[in-house]
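Researcher: I'm comparing several assemblies side by side, and this is the next one on my list. It has 387 residues spread over two chains. Same procedure as the others: predict the full complex and return the structure.
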Amino acid sequence: MAKLREWLDERLQTREIKHALLDRKIPKGVGWLYTLGSVSLFIFTAQIVTGILLAMNYVPSPEHAYLSVKHVTDQIPMGSVMRGIHKWGASAMVIFVTLHMLRVYFMGAYKYPRELTWIVGVLIWLIVLGFGFTGYLLPWDQKGFWATVVGANIAEQAPYLGPWIAKLMRGGDQLGAVTLTRFYAIHVLILPASLGLLVAIHLFMVIRQGISAPPEREPRRPG
Amino acid sequence: MTEGMDAGRREFLKRGTLILGGLTLLGLAIPSGVYVLAPLWKRSEEEWVEVAAVSEVPVGQPTKIEFVRRKKDGWVTIEGRSSAWVVTADGRQFTAYDPRCTHLGCPYRFDAAQGKFLCPCHTAMFDIDGNVLSGPAPRPLDRFETKVVGKKLLIKPAVEKKEG
């Protein structure tokens, strides 16, 4: 093991990479609140793994979607665990990304020089919500179906552009097979690619700049 | 003085992180592995099909019985027509033959006058027990499992892979 490490380091300077990634200087006063980003990253990884595995047994068509999901849950060993992790992970993802965002906001960590990290972070948050919205429809059960009907109707209420947005979302005037396939494509192709890219940029900036120190309390002014 | 204590604490946290992280990863990796490898130990399940009432099968006379076979393909059930040649000598013990000739899979017929199964394609000939009498057939007729439940005859329309 040590030899392999040596071998790799000689060629690729892996020690430097490890040093840059893991041996970063951390400001004083950093605590549990600063782990929310890592938590989100971990859940994201779990979502990728379970999502790929679920996709192996899923068909995005009105005839097969519900039955294939049921097949995963009832027939495939550990299928219910995979689906469970993906489902609960989805909620956890929204929760932890939001908490992470709140922490950054309230500690003022979004300020100079980390504005770009914040902007990319906001995009990440939006994408995570997009994941939740598109993924909710995929099991093609009553809850997912009607939630999406409501979602499209809400979009329709937007002034001027609303009807077009809703139509684009549904792929037509009514929610149906076309909606399911496009939600699937968005959920498993567009969003993961975008999120992966943005997370990479986000992490690069975090590592490059180091994390911000917690804000100092202003001394209470007398009077 | 606090140096040693810090080092101990650091080592403890390092190990703790590795152990907890490792356990968490295992918790994800093991179910995933089982899920991916599941097809390996999944037995293909051919189901018993009720094909006829026992009394409907004539004794001593091979009869071609048609039935609907339901095949499970993942979450889809495919229905297809299927058949079998059923022979019984006493109305209690039944033998069911795959209706395809063991040579090239042609559907054969029973010639009542000769008391033999004849394949029209390449003139293979089998006796009533399925043994090859003449022709190019490499092995006796393939059999389906049969069983009698109540007054019904059930067939499992699957042939185990055979050499030949």
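Model: For your comparison table: Helices of chain B lie at 2-37.
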